[in-house]
Records
---
Amino acid sequence: MELLDIAFQPIVNIHTGKIYAVEALLRNFRDIGCKSIFEVFDMVYKENLLYGFDLALRRKALKKFSKIKNFENLKLFYNLDNRLFEMHNFAPGNTSEILKDLNIKQETICFEISERHEISDKSGMERTLQHYKNANFCIAIDDFGVGYAGYKLLFDSTPDIIKIDRYFLQNIDKDTKKKQMVKSITHLAIELGIKVIAEGVETAEEYLTCKEIGCNFVQGYFVQKPTVDVNEIQKKYHHVIDIIKEDKRKRKGNNLLKYLDKIEPLRSKSSMHKVVDYFKENNNTPMVPVINNNNEPVGIFYESQIKDYLYSPYGMSLLLNENKETSKLKNFIAKCPSTDVRSDISTIIELYSKNGDTNGIIITQNAKYLGFLSASDIIKLMHEENLIAARDQNPLTKMPGNRIVEKTIATISCDKKYLFCYFDLDNFKAYNDKYGFRNGDRIIQLFADILHKHLPQEYFKGHIGGDDFFVSSQDETDGYQQIRNLIEEFENQAKTFYSQEDRERGYIIASDRDGLQKKFELLTVSASLLYVNNVDTSQFSNHINNILSKQKKLAKSDKTKIVASSLL
């Protein structure tokens, strides 16, 4: 044990870059003849020494953790080999003794349960996890999604935290399948009142994608590699904060704070006397948020849960009998979804819509309780968002309008490869003049439908106005062939909107801008493509617009109807 050392890797709040916790990781295992951490645990497991070894390691990790500056405000994530629960000498209670010896709070430690090994006594493991939860230990499921029974464990034990495995996060910014899967896992967890850590994040792009999806915390080389030097653990990670500020600059703020109800919460260790007194003093309040000693939300207490006690002959006596386990506040706490105050309004609305039986959502700041957003206030927020969206939509196609298009160009990340494309319908004014506005609107809607059909959902698609459209994409493919295909389909379908005579002739007679009669070919569409890489679009948005506009004129006379260039 003396040869082994402990390294710590920080876990930070994804919205602030401030440290939330550290994970303890075993180091110097090669000094005892092992090639990996897993080999160490396999060795002691085979010798039936796993539990004793783990207890000694637990003490070593906690002792070193207590040397981190301001450790009192942090959590320590400690990995439990789930084979511990099979050991003949396994006995709950030893961790509390270690914590007491080192003067560390119970809530400080978070046990990570790995799905790496399948165990025979799953019911015993679930009972032990429940014991840890009852003792105010935080429980996290590590490597979520790659083990044997993750969703079952999620359902049966309801952990406080899940850590999404690196497998799902690697290149998530480029992989729509991974993004959708992680989004589903994250939203399910949050709906159940479970926090989510994105584990193994290595790039700024992965970080921002996890933030966009709704993860609460992040861990990985992008933040900091594991270190054995406790002095290297920082309170804030400024390179992360810089990324957050840049992302925040690009996004609009939300109006959440003006609706937030800062309900005074109850502590999870409050007596039932205090609970009853709370509702007597606040008789118009049907519920109250509950927090732990670290000011982290643990759920909601509903007054309706104790009404049967209050109105039965001996109910009040039973409820207030603190010697009864059933009379503890923790037994009445209901899970409630929570999210950070900096979350997008769309995330909050989606959370609420998937939890129809909840009275609202708990709002946090730096993982600490901030207030409560009621169902009625979420509906008001939703109404505000709908009004804003309606103002920014093109009324005909219901696509984002010119203001959003301009903002999209100005806020795209400067360190990624993007495709921008302007579309302009050729000879549309002549068609509109001859066939009327109603048919002109049908042509506009036709092109909008073809855009949605040929370009993936991940593409941003906007309707600038009139017969001008815009798309942008971070797709790995160059998009050229897809655009070529949609141009061809539009030209073929647009012909059906002419009379048979005009189709056979191949042109129409209409007035030009000077009022002179002339021939106009049938409707086509021109496309101006621009590939952008490592360019700060916020600084060069006008330049980009000028390039696209000039190319659009060239595309009208090009037989392919497409002109493309690069800005690298």
---
Amino acid sequence: MTTHIGVLPLDLGDAVTRKVNERVPGLDGPDASTTSFLRLPHPRTALPALFLPYRLAQRADVSSGSEDEWGILEVQSVSPPNQRSWFFMEGEVISDGKLLVMTPIDPAFLLIPILQAIKPNDGSAGLFQPLDDIFDEAMPKIVRSVNERTSEDASPHSISQEDMLFLTRCDCVINALKRICDFQNITPELTVYRYSEDKVIEYLQAKVSRLSKHAVAEKSRTLIRNLAKDGLMDDGKENLLELGRLRMACNLVSQYVTRDVYAALIAKYDFTPLDAHIKALKDQEIANTLAGAQAKKPRAADGVEDDGKKRKAKSKASQGVEKLKKANVSGMSKISSFFQKK
């Protein structure tokens, strides 16, 4: 079995010992102790991507309530630009130098494109449906759309309805569904849902608000450098800094939503002052560049003129040549006469 190096949560446990797409015998749902990797459409690109359901160790003893017993990890591969290997103690070498990074993902991101797939085209709110009916209607559309885009590739690059259906058995998915949908409890055993764009945007705005907090932004040096590059860390720029953090948070959320959802989210904010500030910085940078170029031109012209004078000065004959010019050469034959026929 191929060995990979990965970064993952501590409570993932034995689930990472299963190789990609290996099915566990007798696995009927997330009640099993281990699960397999799922190939699902990425919530932003809709391209096949790897995800891993796993039991949250700190809540493994929870049998009911609002707390999730299960979570979902996004699996990403970080490959070096050149061929690399991993070296370990006792001479062990792993030739595959890529690094697998597994990070928790909000199941709501996975649900949004599924719910959008069955949204009525006439702009109406649509019907309330049970979870199973939603997936039964959405899965064929999504699988067909994704597989058509990857039809030239082999089957490992496609997604299956089986993997998508696995989500319906995860409590974290069911709880996330209630955060982005209107729902009605028909009976204690039956709940129906309807996609709500308003609830989706409100939920994403809550994420943006949390990500834009000072304590969160300071955890990333890259984000701090970007804010400083735009001059937002200067004194007296507190309002612009707040807008900068909001936009930064929106950009982070945009990595997991489609373009139309991101457009609806960004429309909830007024970044006009920030845009004007950044435009002023760019205009000033362009002006400084032009001023520097103009300042160099006269110096270049002076240099050319000075060089010309120097060349003229160098063209003056030496004292020996000047003396020869004054010498009496009358009666002497010219040099050209030596080359004439006699």
